[in-house]
Amino acid sequence: MPIPADWPTTEAEALAEQRRLRPLVQAHDGEPAPDSPAVGRLIAGVDVAYDDDRDLVAAAAVLLDRDTLEVVEQATAVGRIAFPYVPGLLAFRELPAVLDALAALTRTPDTVVCDGYGLAHPRRLGLASHLGVLTGLRTLGVAKTPFTFDHHEPAAPRGSWTPLTDPATGEEVGRALRTRAGVKPVFVSVGHRTGLDTAVRTTLDLARHYRLPETTRHADSLCRRALADAQRTGTTAN
Question: What pTM was computed for the model?
């Protein structure tokens, strides 16, 4: 899995690329009715695991049936870490491997759920939005923490939510969503071609039994196994 030749290598290049891509994000549903079949049943989860000492990243893409939550297909990719760790620029570390894992699927997801942020990002271009713009796929982000944004705790029942807001502007950039009664919320944001109501509804569809969506749970487990396999076999990135 080679890193693309034109991939940003410096913080300045990455920031310029975020500014270029940000106007291309569609922060609304691409279909007339969010509950229509066009929203789709094939939902992919993507996640990555790192071995910084070996300069390795493993990505997983797991395709689920939204109705049954059964795994339909899965794929992994292992390669070099594409970018140094810089807060707010994590997409540049992860996307080459994630794109490779998605490309290895034989079916195209209707929606991709990222373990991270979309518009809930300082420059409104987190991993989910960046991935959506590059691929044209419908995407959303479901993060475990609120990053630098403010929120009030949602009410205890499952499905309760409160706005996730930018303290500098007061803008709603996502929602703190209770996926299990009495359990701490997750943080949902629009990625691309997805409205916030649809992102919340999709997250609840995928998180019927646990705090995190099944897409994230499966992808997290699979990328960790792929990294462990690479470490055990002595795989090195090309």
Answer: 0.92
The token pair that represents 59 in the structure block: 């990505």
pLDDT in tens, 128-159: 999 999 999 999 999 999 999 999 999 999 99
pLDDT tens, position by position, 102-117? 999 999 999 999 999 9
Alpha-carbon distances of 87 from 93, 142, 164, rounded to whole Å: 11, 17, 19
Q: What is the DSSP string of the chain?
A: -PPPTT---SHHHHHHHHHHHGGG---S-SSS-TTSGGG-SEEEEEEEEEEGGGTEEEEEEEEEETTT--EEEEEEEEEE--S---TT-THHHHHHHHHHHHHT-SS--SEEEESS-SSSSTTS--HHHHHHHHH--EEEEEESS-TT-B-PPPPSSTT-EEEEE-TTT--EEEEEE-SSTTSPPEEEEEEES--HHHHHHHHHHH-SSSSS-HHHHHHHHHHHHHHHHHHHHT----
Dist. CA 124–CA 23, nearest whole Å: 10
Give 160-178 pLDDT, tens digit per residue. 999 999 999 999 999 999 9
Q: Which of 148, 96, 119, 113 is nearest to 21 (CA)?
A: 119
